[in-house]
Amino acid sequence: MELEALKEIDSEVRALGAQIVVLTPELERYTRALHKKLNLPFDILTDLHLKTAEQFGLVFTFPDYLRELYKSFGSTLDRFHDESEYRLPIPARYIVDSNSLIRAADVNADYTIRPEPSETLRRLKEILRTETSPHGEQKNSNGEDDRT
Amino acid sequence: MSNLNNRLEEFKKTFESGAPPYNVTPEVVAKMHRATDELKASGIEDRALKIGDHAPEFVLFNQDHVEVASKDLLRKGPIVVSVFRGHW
Fold first, then answer.
1. pLDDT at A143
2. Sequence-separated (6 or more) residues with CB below 8 Å from residue A54
3. Average pLDDT, chain B
4. What is the DSSP letter of A39?
5. Chain B interface test: which of A7, A36, A90 (most B C-beta within 10 Å)
6. A132 pLDDT band (50/70/90 cuts)?
7. Average pLDDT for residues B43-55, to the nearest whole number?
8. Can you give the pLDDT at residue B24?
9. What number is the ipTM of this complex?
10. I need a labelling partner for B31 at 20 to 30 A (CA). Which of A51, A72, B65, B77 fits?
11. What topology is assigned to A2-127 in CATH?
12. Residue B30, class by beta-carbon neighbours within 10 Å (0-12 exposed, 13-18 middle, 19+ buried)?
């Protein structure tokens, strides 16, 4: 539901010169299927072993009773994440500006509540309005490392 | 634009009512509520990065096995980073 809702704001986000990326701990074989099924206009990135989500401070480990509960549902997070621990990120949405600064942050430990895409769009517009030159100052043809 | 959280709330009501296809019991719902309450109480929301913090750099594979670097994305403009827990 969340990804479909993000899809609805994608063209407006792009028109503002920004882009959406989704991070998930799920392996590529699952993100590929999901991406195809929802026909998403933005990337889903595999945050393998939750390394980036950890840096954002969003990761928690399931208590035993919750892990057993998910297993009883047939959920196999270990298979989806390539790790034996049952860990997930709490839902979060950030707006990061071209200086790598976080300009909007929406996190909630209750996974049944998700950041509202219309609110994300509103914040993005607000941020771009307050910037005299949102982007375009940095050179494109600099000798950045090509990390492949 | 339809409201995502209204839709989520509706889904939650159906799910927790024990209706098919999920058929959850009140005990299961209670456990899930307990987990969320404990997570809230753990202070995880306060420990997460906030406005004004530097976002971590990342280089990750997308769904087509193409490497995507946050640095390259940010050169074009701001990014909306949505952290998604997946199927669960």
1. 41
2. none
3. 90
4. T
5. A90
6. low
7. 96
8. 80
9. 0.86
10. A51
11. Glutaredoxin (3.40.30)
12. exposed
pLDDT at B34 over 80: yes
**Who contacts B44 (Cβ-Cβ below 8 Å, separation ≥6)?**
A57, A58, A60, A90, A109
Cβ(A137)–Cβ(B75) under 8 Å?
no
B43 Cβ under 8 Å from any chain A Cβ: no
Q: Is the pLDDT of residue B11 over 50?
A: yes
What is the nearest CA distance from A84 to chain B, expressed in angstroms? 16
- Chain A CB within 8 Å of residue B27 CB: no
B30 and chain A: CB distance < 8 Å anywhere? no
Scan residues 44-83 of B and list those with Cβ closer than 8 Å to A. Answer: 44-45, 47-65, 67-83
Show the tokens assigned to B29: 């719902």
Mean pLDDT on B32-44: 92
In this structure, the number of other CB atoms found within 10 A of the CB of residue A89 comes to 26
Which tokens in the block code for residue A45? Answer: 């990135």
What is the residue extent of each domain of chain A?
A: 2-127
pLDDT at residue A139 above 60? no
Domain extent listing, chain B: 4-76
CA angle A76, A78, A80 (to 5 degrees): 75
